[in-house]
Design a protein that fits this description.
With about 200 residues, this protein is of the alpha/beta class. The chain has nine helices and eight strands.
Length: about 200
């Protein structure tokens, strides 16, 4: 994963509460086993009609929001099933951060595994961002700040120090394990009898 340090972007506002993982990526698209390719299915049932035509009234189909890397959402984002595909779809579409007042726990954890920063802010702060969606936002992970350009508004967010470290260094669970590769190899050399194939 690429390290997450400072992200500068405008936000894409998804003004809906209780967005669950089946709405983020519908179940019919879960057959893919790779993490890539899910972006085109993000919010599929909201983005497209039954004939596959884009719905003009859905925010992701508005050219104004094209290329924005921050998704702005409401309470309880990512509820429902534990499918990691929801985080894959958000990342593959191009979002690197999601700001909301609250997240479902499993989705929140899956974000960190996939290089996405989930930012929990107060409801009043999220309201402010919705009202000022065209202002540039800077998310500084090291300082744990969301800064709204031109307004002087700075909003602090909490994050677990270990998860913060993983994002700052661009590490997922595999990358973290590989950092210990020398220790693992040394352990295996010292304990060959446990790893040698049996003759019986």
């Amino acid at each position: 994963m690429e390290p997450f340090t400072v992200l500068k972007s405008k936000a894409t506002p998804l003004d809906r509460v209780n967005v669950d993982t089946d709405q983020i990526v519908p179940k019919q698209f879960l057959k893919l086993v790779n993490r890539t390719g899910f972006g085109k299915y993000l919010f599929y049932d909201w983005r497209f009609d039954r004939d596959g035509r884009p719905r003009s009234d859905f925010v992701l189909n508005n050219p104004k929001y094209s290329g924005r890397q921050i998704l702005l959402a409401r309470d309880n984002f990512g509820s429902g099933s534990s499918r990691e595909h929801a985080a894959w779809a958000i990342f593959d579409y191009g979002f690197r951060a999601v700001i909301a007042p609250s997240f479902a726990d499993i989705f929140y954890n899956n974000c960190f595994k996939n290089g996405i920063l989930p930012v929990r802010l107060k409801s009043s702060e999220v309201d402010y961002l919705f009202k000022n969606e065209d202002l540039d936002i800077e998310i500084d992970l090291a300082e744990q700040l969301v800064v709204v350009a031109g307004s002087g508004r700075k909003m602090h967010f909490e994050i677990d120090e270990f998860r913060k470290k993983l994002l700052l260094e661009g590490l997922d669970s595999i990358g973290l394990t590989l950092q210990l590769e020398d220790h693992i190899a040394r352990y295996e050399r010292q304990n060959r009898m446990f790893f040698a194939p049996s003759d019986s």
